Amino acid sequence: MNPKIFKANDIRGKYPQEVNEKTIFEIAKALRGYFGLKAKIVIGRDDRLSSPSLYKEVFRGLGGKIIEAKIITTPMLYFLVNKLGADGGIMVTASHNPKNFNGLKIVGKKASPISGLEIGSFASTRFVRPATRSLVLADSVRLLVGHHAESVAGVSDKRYQFLYISFLKKFLKLKRPVKVVFDCSNGTTGLVLKKLFPRAIFINNKLNGNFPAHGPDPMAGGAMEQLQSAVKKHKADLGIIFDSDGDRVFFADDKGKTIDAEDAAFILAENYKQPFVISADYGYRMKQYKTIISKVGRYFLKKKMIDKKASFGAERSGHYYFKDFNYSDSGIFAAIQMINFISGKNEKIPDYLNKLPKLYRFSKNFKVSDKEKIINRAEKFYKNKKIKVSSPDGLVVEAKDFRFCLRPSNTENLVRLNAEALSKEALSRGIKELKQIL
Q: Catalytic: 390?
């Protein structure tokens, strides 16, 4: 088993080279030992081509009391773990990664995040060296092999959808009609949105694990073009796009222009009590609020929110966390809050944002062979220039009129750059300098 598939936030790798049926079966057996033989576990999956067979291996390897949610969004899994009082949940998904990836997102009671690294460490002690197992562990494994899983309550997945949609509807508080275009990226959000917003305009809402429209990642180049065109064509108030498993969301205004993730977070935070938990790559806008910095990733951000009892949290990658949603991230829940915001305003989003201080931004992913080397090089360069440098997550550099965050991706050979400035000149100067380093 390749140890590299066990990430800080989840388990993820290329299918079938790194993640395959055998791998998932072995991890599922380990997870039954991790959760306990009597634990009640919710399992769900996205619509990737490899997900049905991997889902079967989770069911087969896990054994015990299983609640089969079948094809769902990842936030719906979080909801069901809470709603049904389960001991944990397992989602077969690779989230926004390309179609040839797959993996597992795992949570405990109350959808508390469980690190893939933790599961990797636990699994390795039970399956890598069988001779070193204790008698109790060996007995547990013998019970699991060939053990038949049992479904709980016999309730269909449609019943679970009803519970989830009923919960979400409580938060939809429209003061006037809002015309919305949804781009589901051929993922699973359409299963919920079609029933929640039956009069909305939908594109790419057909389940298709090949993701033919633009791939499962809304942040990829060109991914939002269809949504932007649809917003202008239908003269909509808002465009909303999700990743394939529904935990990320991005927005376009009534002109089809992308709303920066920081501006979206600023809007969503307006109706919540400070302080907020944010990732280190947020800048001037969100820091107008009282904020607490967290490392990127649901494992870190959710734990920080619970610890600080924060009502709202955000990452620039399109993840928004809400205390009202059991401290979890949900693209659809964030979309509801944005729609509520628009319905309560007599002005368009661009008019609202134009009243705020003007910021100039630049964001880009750089493919690199050595993430740590690049970040160390940038850190040394700016320290020599005696510019403020910190390392809350990756590298944050703050000059008088220019700042940026450079951090390594948790799942790819990339460094992510988010830069902003108080003037065009400062941004141009800062980016030119950075490109020489990168």
A: no
